[in-house]
Amino acid sequence: MRRYTGYRDFVQRDQRSLVGTALLLTGSHEHALRLVLWSLRSVGLSWPPTLWENPTTHAQITMYRRHLRRPASTGATALLRLPPRRRVLVVACLHDGRTREEMATVLGLPLETVESEITEAVAALSKGDAKRLATRLAALADEASVPDLSVRAVRALRRRRTRGTLLTAVTALVPIGLVAAFTLLQQGQVWNSALGERNQPPSTRTTDGPDTPRALASPGPGSGPEPWQTPRTSFTIRYAVPGKCPDDGASTDGKPAPSRAGKVTCAGWTLKLAGGDEGRPALESVECERPGHCESTVNVPDAAQHLAHGDDWSYWRLTPAISRDGRRIAYLSAAEGRYVAHDLRSGEKRYLSPALVPGDTETGTRVSVSPDGRLFTVELGARRLRTDFATGGVTSLPPGHATAVERSADWLRQNYQVWRDSPSGRYSAAVKPAKDGSDSLHVIDARTRQVFRDLRLPSLGDPTAAEVVGWLNAREVVVRLTDKAAGDLLGFFRVDAVNGRMHRVPGLPDGESIVLGDLTSS
User: Where are the residues of the annotated region Disordered (predicted)?
Assistant: First the structure.
C-alpha cells in the first residue's frame, strides 16, 4: 500500500468538511456517510493525485455527480425541497466555494443556466440574501456527526485493489480482453488525470469537411475555439506562423479598461507540414512538388498568441514549442485554459499544466521542449513543471534546477531585446544592433555571460538589420535579414555559430513571428 502514502492523512483532514457537504445534499447522516465513502474511494483509486489536482476538489465533484445520478435525501427542509441540481449548485457555490464557471463545466451547463438557478434558489431560501444563506448552510453542515472514516476508506481500497487484481488476471486469459486492450493502445487513448480527463482517439472524432474553413479564435463569451484534434500523420512540422489577431487596443469610450488578466485575447497558429505520400490520408489538403515531397497547411485554432495581464490592454506574446524533429507541438490552449502537447505521429495528447489562473501569468509564461522532443517544461511564475511525454509523468522542478541560459535570463534581457537558447542550454544567440553598417550576431556562453562569438553579418549590398529566429541544430542559428533603410525582407539565413558561414534557407514566409520545426523535412 505504499502507493497510498498520505491518503489516510487526507481522509482524516477533510472528512468533516466532506460529511458536512454531503449532509446538506442528503439531509441524512446515513446517506451522507455513504456518499462521502463513495467519493473517497474515487479519490483513492487515482491516488496519488497529480501536481495540479486537489483531492478535496476531486472528492467534492464526485459527490455532486453521484448525488445527481442517485439523489437520495431524507427530510422536508426548504433546501431539500429544491430540485437536486439546484440543490447541488447552491451547496457547491455558497458552501464549498466553487465558482459558477467551474460548476458550469462540471455539470456541462451553460453559465447563464447556473447563474439563474442559483439566483432563484437564493430568492426562495433567503429572499435573495446570499450571505445569510451561506451562513445558514455553514451552521447546518457543522451539525454533522463525523466518525473517523480513514479505516473504512482504506479497507475499501484494499478490497477494490484485490478484486481488481483478480479481474485483471482473468481478463489476461481471455483473448477478447487482449484484443480490446490492444485496440485501445493502437487508438492512442491516454489517461493522465485523477478526474478522468481522457484524450479522444483520432478515429472517433468528428472532422470538418475538406471545404470547411478553420476560423481563428475570436475570444469572448461563448465564441472561443474548440480544442485542436491532432491529424495523426507522418508529416512533420517545418514551421508555425501566427494568424491575424483582432485589435487588442479597443476603445473604452473613456471608461476604465476592464481587467482581463489571465485571459487569452487572441489565438490561432498555422502549421506548415512536409512529408511523403504515406502521410497524406489524414490531412485535408496536400500539394506535392514531386512524388514523396509534399506539403500541407494545418490550422491550430486554440493555440494562444496573446495572454492579457495587468488592468489595461497589455498582453504577453506567446509562441508554441515545436520539437526539433517536427513531430510534437506544445502551446497554451485557449479552449482549455492550460498547456497541452500533441504528437502528430501517434495522435496522442498530453496535459502539461493545470488550468491557469491570473497569478500563474503575472510575470509571463512559456513552454519549451528538450532537444530530443521528449521533455516539455512549462513556466508559471516561480513554478516550473516538466512533463515526460512518453510516460505522462509530471515533476515540479526545484528553483535551483535550471539550465545556464535560464539562470542568465535577467542578464540577457538587460542586454538584448530578443535571444534564442541553444538546444544544449549552454549558449544563447542574439543580435547586437550596429549604428553604422550591418548588425552583428552574438553567441553568448550563458555560464560565463561572455560573448563566445561576435559574427559580423554581411550587408548584402546595403546595411542590414537582423533578428534571431531560432537554432536549426546545435551549431547553426537561423536569422532573418531585412534592408535597414527600406525594411524589405532580404531572406532567412542559417549562420554557423563557430565560423560565421551563411546559407540561405528557402521556403520561409515573412511575418511578425515564426517558430521553426524540422527544416530538413521534405
Answer: 195-261
How far apart CA 133 and CA 128 sit, in angstroms, is 9
Total residues belonging to the chain: 522
Task: Please report the pLDDT score of residue 23 as a whole number.
Answer: 94
Distance CA 201, CA 188 (A): 6
* Predicted confidence band of residue 187 (pLDDT cuts 50, 70, 90): very low
**Is the pLDDT confidence value at 312 over 80?**
no
**Residue 12 CB contacts under 8 Å (≥ 6 apart), including other chains:** 148, 150
Q: E strands, 412-456, where?
A: 419-421, 427-432, 440-445, 450-456
Q: Tell me the pLDDT tens digit for each residue of 66-124.
A: 999 888 888 778 999 999 999 999 999 999 998 898 888 888 888 899 999 999 999 99
* DSSP label at residue 376: E
Could you give the 3-state DSSP secondary structure of residue 210? coil
The torsion angle over the Cα atoms of residues 283, 240, 384 and 188, rounded to 10 degrees, is 10
Angle between helices 111-126 and 100-107 (to 10 degrees): 120
Q: Which three cell numbers stand for residue 343?
A: 504528437
Give the CA distances from residue 432 to residues 437, 456, 476, 480, in Å, rounded to whole numbers and listed in that order: 12, 10, 17, 14
By CB neighbour count within 10 A (0-12 exposed, 13-18 middle, 19+ buried), where does 460 fall? middle
Whole-prediction pTM: 0.58
**Cell numbers at residue 383, please?**
513554478
**Are 494 and 472 spatial neighbours (Cβ–Cβ below 8 Å)?**
yes
Partner residues linked to 496 by β-bridges:
476
Strand-pair partners of 41: none
